[in-house]
Specification:
This protein has 548 residues and is α+β, with helices and mostly antiparallel strands. Helix content is 36%, strand content 17%. It contains 20 helices and 18 strands. The protein has a five-stranded antiparallel β-sheet, with helices on one face. The protein has a five-stranded mixed β-sheet with strand order 12-13-14-15-16. Strand 12, helix 14 and strand 13 (388-393) form a beta-alpha-beta unit. The longest helix is centred in the C-terminal third of the chain and has 18 residues, at 440-457. The chain is globular and about 80 Å long. It binds iron/sulfur cluster (SF4).
């Protein structure tokens, strides 16, 4: 039988080797529990997923809006987990599998296994969940590594990171699905030993992001190689290179292209790479307000370069289908027409959405468009650990959806309410109220402090919502730091923000005006010829990349 999974393959190989080398071993069957991504959807099944021949009770969660289906089968007496199926979200797979395999006692309300426990931090419950497993619990099913072996590598072997666990036990080297559990085990076991757990950036830097941020700033380090030489080891990797580039950009506001070797593809070409190998261009349209002349300019440029046009969800116009060698020419024309980079490619402020507010809407109590433009102009180009989105609504009806943004502002009769750490995307989360009925100046001051505090302290690639979820003390603590200045750093945060605002430059303009940077925009290194493999087809009156 072909299982299609790595673990039975290893087991079969072990049987062959044992028999070839004089031993005796039989392959009888293998646990088919597995977690996969099928066409982008997380799916998993564990234990007995259907329980066709066993008396059981089931708990089902079905959310057709989010595309999530979860079912767990529980023994008739409610004491044991027999198996289950997860579709659309499978984060709890590892814990469910271990609970099932090790016949762990179920919580008083077993639905918590798929709904999550009410109250309490997810992080700590995750940790204590792993620690509750018996030593013989199989953590890495691919390599057959138990919790006991992993813990003794930590306690007796002195291992303190996932890389060490991988090299000394082989756990996590197969499908990689158990790596989050390995991290939890390392953290919890080290905590239990009274050791300090440091979340270092990667194997090339023995520092947390926050420590590196301070080192770069205090020692005035301006290049990745200088930092690597002074504080790191090896050649760097795909984790530390973009993370350091982002920190340098946040601290010095230098051109992100300055060190071309350490950028992601999108940052390398200041545009988003799309299907078929062409790029899309999003000019900034602050607050979504645009003049007819500027609309005409975009239309003419799109027509000249035969670009596909689409209005984005963030009130901007996206131009698709540009070849890499065309980018500087297109930007030159856009810059001439008064446009700037919209940073749609960077971990930076994207868009500040607005509703029409009091200028046009009968319900509006404040000028939301004017404020959105002011906010977008203020924070444009600022690099952060992750992308930043914002919105301003003209009244409580919230047409700009400000509560789903990293920072959102809603007009009130008395001023503005400021919400922070909201998130759309894969894991939607509502923003939380940071300050209410404040005037414009106070609102801006709080946003300055909030953004700088986030930029300085968040882990790489962490959105504000996740950052807040991990912040000890949550929104109350954040309010204390930002509004009450409990750490005494408000002035410093404001000064640092003001430096970034005052040193802003449009990255597209820099490329257009700099022959050396401009010469990098070629498809091939040894000829000016464009990529001959790019192909388009027509659909709905515009061009599309040919189907893959
Ligand atoms: S949020 Fe209020 S002001 Fe803005 S468009 Fe909606 S109803 Fe009008």
């Amino acid at each position: 039988m072909i299982y299609g999974l790595v673990a039975p393959g290893y087991e079969m190989a072990d049987v062959v080797v044992t028999n070839l080398t004089g031993g005796t071993k039989m392959f009888s069957a293998f646990d088919m529990s597995t977690k996969l991504k099928l066409i982008g959807v997380d799916v998993a099944s564990f234990g007995d997923p259907f329980c066709s021949n066993v008396k059981h009770r089931t708990i089902v969660l079905e959310d057709a809006v989010k595309g999530i289906y979860k079912r767990i089968n529980i023994s008739e007496d409610g004491s044991k987990l027999l198996g289950g199926v997860l579709v659309g979200e499978a984060e709890s797979y590892n814990m469910l599998l271990q609970t099932c395999k090790n016949c762990l006692p179920l919580p008083a309300s077993p639905e918590e296994l798929i709904l999550g426990a009410r109250g309490g931090s997810g992080e700590s419950s995750k940790g204590s969940g792993v620690m509750a497993l018996p030593d013989n619990a199989l953590i890495c099913s691919c390599e057959g590594v138990s919790k006991g072996s992993i813990c003794s590598a930590i306690t007796e072997g002195g291992v303190d990171d996932v890389k060490g666990i991988k090299s000394c036990t082989k756990a996590g080297t197969g499908c990689g699905g158990c790596v989050p559990m390995l991290k939890d085990l390392i953290t919890e076991t080290m905590k239990a030993q009274g050791k300090v757990v440091r979340n270092v950036l990667c194997e090339h830097f023995d520092y947390t992001r926050q420590e590196l941020y301070d080192l770069i700033k205090i020692q005035e380090i301006k290049t990745y190689h200088q930092l690597l030489g002074q504080h790191g080891k090896g050649y760097g990797c795909e984790v530390c290179k973009p993370a350091v580039a982002s920190m340098m950009a946040s601290i010095w506001n230098d051109m992100i292209l300055k060190e071309a070797t350490i950028q992601d593809t999108n940052d390398q070409f200041l545009a988003n790479i799309q299907r078929g190998g062409t790029y899309s261009i999003v000019p900034r349209v602050a607050g979504g307000e645009i003049t007819p002349d500027k609309l005409i300019a975009i239309g003419l440029i799109a027509k000249k370069y035969d670009l596909y046009c689409k209005i984005t969800g963030g009130q901007r116009i996206d131009l698709f289908g540009a070849r890499v060698d065309q980018l500087p020419e297109i930007w030159e024309e856009l810059v001439e027409a008064g446009f700037e980079s919209g940073h749609a490619y960077g971990k930076a402020l994207r868009t500040v959405k607005s509703c029409v507010g009091s200028t046009w809407c009968r319900f509006g109590v404040q000028d939301s468009v004017g404020f959105a433009i002011e906010v977008e102009e203020r924070y444009k180009g600022i690099r952060a650990p992750h992308k930043l989105k914002s919105a301003v609504s003209g009244c409580v009806r919230e047409c700009a959806e400000a509560q789903s943004k990293d920072f959102g502002i809603i007009a009130t009769e008395k001023g503005w309410n400021l919400y922070v750490c909201g998130n759309g995307g894969a894991k939607p989360q509502h923003a939380l109220l940071l300050a209410s009925d404040v005037d414009k100046e106070t609102c801006i001051r709080y946003i300055d402090r909030f953004l700088m505090y986030y930029i300085k302290t968040a882990e790489p690639l962490t959105r504000t919502a996740t950052w807040l979820n991990k912040l000890e003390g949550g929104i109350d603590y954040l309010k204390d730091v930002i509004v009450n200045d409990s750490l005494g750093i408000a002035e410093q945060l404001e000064q640092e923000m003001s430096y970034l605002i005052n040193t802003y430059k449009c990255e597209w303009k820099e490329v257009v005006e700099n022959p050396e940077l401009r010469s990098r925009f070629t498809h091939f290194v040894n000829t000016e010829e464009p990529d001959p493999t790019i192909q388009f087809q027509a659909e709905r009156g515009q061009k599309f990349p040919v189907k893959w």
